[in-house]
Amino acid sequence: MPYxxxxxxxxQIGPVERIATDEGVAxxxxxxxxxxxNRFTDAQTARESGMTGPIVPGIMxxxxxxxxxxxxxxxxxxxxxxxxxxxxxxxxxxxTLEATITDLRQENGQNLAECDILMLGAQGERHVGGKxxxxxxxxx
Amino acid sequence: xxxxxxxHSVSSDDxxxxxxxxxxxxxxxxxxxxxxxxxxxxxxxxxxxxxxYSALADQYGVLILKxxxxxxxxxxxxxxxxxxxxxxxxxxxxxxxxARELMRAARQHDAVAIPAHPGRxxxxxxxYIQQGESFPGVDVVELLNGGGRAGxxxxxxxxxxxxxxxxxxxxxxxxTSHIATCMTEFRAAIANESQLVDALLSKQxxxxxxxxxxxxxxx
Lengths: 140, 219
Fold this sequence. Notes:
The complex is a heterodimer of chains A (140) and B (219).
Chain A: E1 12-19, H1 22-32, H2 43-48, H3 58-73, E2 78-85, E3 94-107, E4 110-120, E5 126-136
Antiparallel strand pairs in A: 1-3, 2-5, 3-4, 4-5
Chain B: E1 2-7, H1 19-31, E2 38-44, H2 54-60, E3 63-72, E4 75-80, H3 84-89, H4 99-108, E5 112-115, H5 125-130, E6 140-145, H6 152-163, E7 166-170, E8 182-186, H7 193-202, E9 205-209
Parallel strand pairs in B: 1-2, 2-3, 6-7
Antiparallel strand pairs in B: 1-8, 3-4, 4-5, 8-9
């Protein structure tokens, strides 16, 4: 786990590559329990919604982005995650998750690192982008 | 001088970067040896007459100008030199406006309207030209856009080659660390929106990527 004092503006988290497979989305939906049929697991419902195929739920995409941060800074590190969904996320395609540290500050006794966070497609298309704030331990 | 002609602050609904975060990040880029002289905020479908960034500009030594990015039925257009008169004649919130009418009105009000990311798949000017539309008022397009997917800037380049358009560059940043990834290099010194319009009309500019500014003396 990184220490606050060791982080600099511009430091990168990731990139890591993930694929949201049909099976992975189905398992997520089993837990999440959205109404069925839905555009996340049912191709016909997705087409009726104007999609070319089933898409990854936004909340699952956020979970994947959150995992990028918790894998880096620990399970209770996230203080804020605020994202914009720009394009539907297809199943079974490589997704790149990455973040860039843009601000470091101490606030209310916490050592906070703010970062831009992105989920990109294979062609560099931005599926999801936003910012996050994580709390980091201090060496002191 | 090097200006990022296309970026969005939190005044746009899909951005998560404040203007202060942008100008702070410019300091990071400068420490890395890059040259960024200023940015032009091009908020979606609006112009922020009420926002004054001069204190931030002075504090951080970054020129901060304002423009707009408007939706039209023929794609997005960047508008520089926005005045109250232009906003009276053109409804900035009208996403179905005719871009040709926007370009005409802009010139009547000493502003310029330039197609943004013309190579963007689905919504770029290239798509509409391929459908048979013509845009005689266009002579400059956004050739370098920092927000596109692979192939889009190449399509914009093909458009410029085909029609002899000149190109500008802008990051299309919606996040702090994306500011200034693409810019426009001007020969003229620019200190306000009116001078920006004059510099664009002079055609003495070229699009550049941030990396190309490394080691270049600052204006």
